[in-house]
Amino acid sequence: MRAILAGPGGNNINLIIAEQVLFSIGFFSLLYSAYTLVMDRELMSDYPSAGGIISRVIRKRRLYRLVLLAGIVIGAVGISDSNPSNSPSTISTGMSLHLASAIIYLVLVALLAFQTLILAKAELRNGGSGYKHSKASFGARYGIYILLVIAQLLVVRESFAVATANDFTAANNEHLWYPLIALPEILAVMLYSIPDLVPMNSELRDRHMRSEVSGLPTTAAQSSERPTSEVP
Questions:
Q1: Which residue, 65, 54, 186, is CA-closest to 114?
Q2: Are residues 30 and 188 in contact, defined by beta-carbon separation less than 8 angstroms?
Q3: 227 located within any domain
Q4: Residue 224 pLDDT
Q5: Domain assignment of residue 195, yes or no
Q6: Chunked mean pLDDT (size 10), the chain, 232 residues
Q7: Are the beta carbons of 31 and 108 closer than 8 angstroms?
Q8: DSSP 3-state helix, strand, coil percentages of the chain (rounded to 5)?
Q9: Residues of 136-146 as b/e, b for ≥16 C-beta within 10 angstroms?
Q10: Would you say 142 and 195 are in contact if contact means Cβ atoms under 8 Å apart?
Q11: Which residues lie within the region annotated Disordered (predicted)?
Q12: DSSP 38-94
C-alpha cells in the first residue's frame, strides 16, 4: 500500500484513508502491547507501586485502551473529512480531528515512557529486584533496558506523526517515513519478541491470585482488569 501511495495512486483519497486506518490499528496493537508489558512486569516486581497520581491513572488499563480506541476513531473521521471534495469548513474540521488523534497517541506514548522510567528507577534503586525469571537470558537480565528503548522508539515515531499530521507531503516522504515511522516500529516489534521479556500468563495469574489472597497492595490491584501481555 505504501508503494502505491508513493506512485500515481498517492492522490487517491480512499486509499489514503484505508492506509491511515490500517496503520492506526497496527500502532494500537503495538502501543497497547508495550503498555501492557510494562504493567505486567511492574506487577511481577518485588516493590510497592510508586509514581503518584499520574501513575495511578496510567495503571487503569481499560481507560488507556478506551483512549487509544478514541484516537483511532477520531483519526479515521478526520482523514475522511479532509477529502478535498468536501467543503472548506469540513476539511478544516477534518484536519483538526486528525491532529487531535495524533496528539492523543503522543500523550499516551509519553505516559508509557514516563511509567517505564518510573519502573526502571524503582528496579535500579532496589538493586534490580524486578521481574524474576528462572532463565539467565538476555531478555530476563536486561528487560528494563529493553523496555526503555521500546518506549523511546515509540516517542520518536509519534513525534514525527504529530509534526506531519496535516502535511501529507512530508508524512509520505519516503526519506522521512521509513527511518522515523517504519524503522522505530519494526525495531520495537523485534525487541518485544526477545525471549523471556514478556511474563508468562501462568506467572501473572499466580501473582494476581497471591495478591488477592494475601491482601497485599500491588500494582495489579490498581488495574481494572486481569493483566496479560498478549497483543489485543
A1: 54
A2: yes
A3: no
A4: 44
A5: yes
A6: 56 69 87 93 71 85 95 90 86 93 96 93 71 68 91 96 87 88 95 86 71 52 49 46
A7: yes
A8: 75, 0, 25
A9: eeebbeebbeb
A10: no
A11: 211-232
A12: HHHHHHTSSS---SHHHHHHHT-HHHHHHHHHHHHHHHHHHHHHT-TTS-HHHHHHH
As a whole number of angstroms, the distance between CA 39 and CA 18 comes to 32
Amino acid identity at 36: T
Q: What count of other Cβ atoms lies within 10 Å of the Cβ of residue 204?
A: 21
pLDDT in tens, 146-204: 999 999 999 999 999 999 988 878 887 889 989 999 999 999 999 999 988 887 777 77
Host domain of residue 37: 2-222
Rg (CA), the chain: 19
Q: Which three cell numbers stand for residue 73?
A: 476513531
Structural domains in the chain (count): 1
